[in-house]
Amino acid sequence: MAQDLELLLHDNTFAGYTDKQLAIVEAAVDVFAAKGYANSSTHEIAKRAGVAEGNIFSKFGNKRGLLDAIINPVLRSIFPDMVHNLQTDEFQRHYTNLREFISVLVGRRYEFMKSNARVMKIFIAEVVYNTDLRQKVVARFPEGYWQLLFGEFDDLRQRGMLVDWDNSTVMFYLIASAAGIIGGAMLFNQEIAPHTQTQMIDAITRALSPA
Amino acid sequence: MAQDLELLLHDNTFAGYTDKQLAIVEAAVDVFAAKGYANSSTHEIAKRAGVAEGNIFSKFGNKRGLLDAIINPVLRSIFPDMVHNLQTDEFQRHYTNLREFISVLVGRRYEFMKSNARVMKIFIAEVVYNTDLRQKVVARFPEGYWQLLFGEFDDLRQRGMLVDWDNSTVMFYLIASAAGIIGGAMLFNQEIAPHTQTQMIDAITRALSPA
Amino acid sequence: MAQDLELLLHDNTFAGYTDKQLAIVEAAVDVFAAKGYANSSTHEIAKRAGVAEGNIFSKFGNKRGLLDAIINPVLRSIFPDMVHNLQTDEFQRHYTNLREFISVLVGRRYEFMKSNARVMKIFIAEVVYNTDLRQKVVARFPEGYWQLLFGEFDDLRQRGMLVDWDNSTVMFYLIASAAGIIGGAMLFNQEIAPHTQTQMIDAITRALSPA
Amino acid sequence: MAQDLELLLHDNTFAGYTDKQLAIVEAAVDVFAAKGYANSSTHEIAKRAGVAEGNIFSKFGNKRGLLDAIINPVLRSIFPDMVHNLQTDEFQRHYTNLREFISVLVGRRYEFMKSNARVMKIFIAEVVYNTDLRQKVVARFPEGYWQLLFGEFDDLRQRGMLVDWDNSTVMFYLIASAAGIIGGAMLFNQEIAPHTQTQMIDAITRALSPA
DNA sequence: CATGAATGAGCGTTCATTCAT
DNA sequence: AATGAATGAACGCTCATTCAT
């Protein structure tokens, strides 16, 4: 939990929360991740948080509001406000090769997910049945982001370092295989050893290299 | 649904079902896939099936029994009884190269999943929170299966066609990336065009080829 | 069961019953006695009888009708049609002493109850909550019966063999203590050994003898 | 009801109950006694108590818990914790004759049952079908209790005041006939007039006196 | 007569939510 | 803000009863 909360606490969502309210969020993350949102009761969450059930509703309005309070920071964190990062972060530098590029993109996401496994599980379970949320995720990537990312692809391809596919197909393979690898590991509660991480990134790199 | 039922009807699980009982299964697949098992009510399923609610319980015992009736055929179909298939099927032939091997293994699963998208969604959602079911899936792969699969890996590796990793790491990448690709497509209700299928299999092949 | 049925079969209620219908009655006696009428299901009775559930309703109308078919013979048997017995049976002879009188009255009822333990249990449980049935029981004892019984009491009292109480009080003690003794034994599924039977009858005799 | 509650309120089981929770117990005693536990619905109990049905379950867990809350005080009251009462109460004094002894033992129970008729009815009906509860009743009489009671019997017998039977047979007659008398009275909702009480105790005394 | 699939009212129970304290 | 008793709609489920075969 400490890890999960560490992340959530960096989000301004939780500024001004009382100790009890934070305890509710902590407990909710535990319970939602263990049994799924629909199978969790506000009674159990309140008990685990050591507070009265009413507190959940005075702060979060309803059970759904509590879920949103957990999910929204994920939306903001894993898909950080791309507009602000455009000039900095992932695209400010020039990658000398495909492997370095993949390593940064995937590695960063893996670190995040590893540190926030329970919150991520809640988020993903919600995304599966929630079309609105799915569209919100897509909406977090503004036009400009794709331009920069695809620009990076184009650059690598011109230098003969990237397979000759549609940019969107490249992106799909990158996201899908990385998500499969990370999700698979999480499903069995296992970390990916550093050596294996290297192997995985090597493999994705080969996959996206020209034939 | 037509597609889903087509599959399920080939499974002997549904032999002897009355029309109403089949209608319940059809409706349940619809509702479970749309809202998740926990958020679905037997009342809604019965209404959609045009049937009295009691029928669900006289046939399936309880709500969970209805889920099992949907899930068990998946277990039998996507992970067929490997013990009996050892000499036949996927391992009877000799693959001339890695790509052919991957193409058969992955392609076959993709076809199945595409035809049974809703049932698969139900199955996967259940696996995430159900440790028992996860172990059942694992148990469907007996020792002998791994020996044959890994023997195939060893053979390909000796012929210089497979990356020099642990067999289990190879397998993990293969399953995880394929699952990510197929799951990602299903999440957005999209088929993978034949051309893209080729690209994906090419990519996985490169990923698992020696450096 | 054999014993219970032996009794019930002597009642003309069961004349013309098919084998299946008799099997239903047998099964119902078992189940009602074990779990109580309200906690027994027609499904279980039908299963135990090896017949389809519908048979219960085509023969007995409803579940209550099945209970009545079991209870009515008890009403007729344990409280036999007193009018017909007036000249015969219990009051035709002259008892030489109180003990002999009690021995016949109580002994006969005990034998009946021992042979029909399960049916009696069903009957008693029903009587507790069923005012109508209670009144039916009372109604089985016509005016003439009391006259004869109380006449017997008066006779014994005049001969100095019976306590100087109201006849109705004598009767109450007689019935209540005998019922308590027999019921207590049945509650723990135990027979009363012949030696103990003698002791009990001796005791009741002393209880009702003049001080 | 007032009477019943008077008793139950003296039991610490009901300390800390809210008004509504007490109303539930009151209503449950009414309904259970009138129709039997199995035929009573929580809906009816809640309605009669003027309370939402959910309150039953938040306080008592389930319907059975409500029955237990009614039954347990009976267990504690009618069969008080004998271990602690060994030196006091019924056995501390020396009875000068059998009648006095019976009068205390039976009279005390009769007073209790008369004041708690409905609760007793519920208790007895439950005992008939509940083997566990029957054993609990038996378990409330520890070894030491029997020793004292049988010691009292032995003492009376040596003084020529008690019939020459097994102690357990004496006890059985005592309990069974008293229970039959009290139960019979309760079955027809009638009190036993003081004069009749005297007669009954006299009768039991004679029954257990030497021939 | 016999069957058992089908029905649906009613049950015990859960739980998000409200609100007086 | 904090409490938890109270609420009642909705749930999964049971079971007496019906009826087409």
The biggest sheet of chain A amounts to: none
Which H/E pattern describes the elements of chain A? HHHHHHHHHHHHH
Number of domains of chain A: 2
Average residue pLDDT of chain A? 86
Q: Largest inter-chain interface?
A: A-B, 38 and 39 residues
Net shape of chain A: elongated
Low-confidence stretches of chain A: none
Helix segment count of chain A?
13
Oligomer: homotetramer
Question: Measured on Cα atoms, how large is the radius of gyration of chain A?
Answer: 19 Å
Strand percent estimate of chain A: under 5%
Number of strands of chain A: 0
Cα(first) to Cα(last) distance of chain A is: 44 Å
Structural class of chain A: mainly alpha
Task: Considering the chains and any ligands shown, give keywords for the structure.
homotetramer; 211 residues; mainly alpha; Arc Repressor Mutant, subunit A; 2 domains; 13 helices; 75% helix; DNA-binding; Tet_transcr_reg_TetR-rel_C_sf (chains A, B, C, D); transmembrane (chains A, B, C, D); HTH_TetR (chains A, B, C, D)
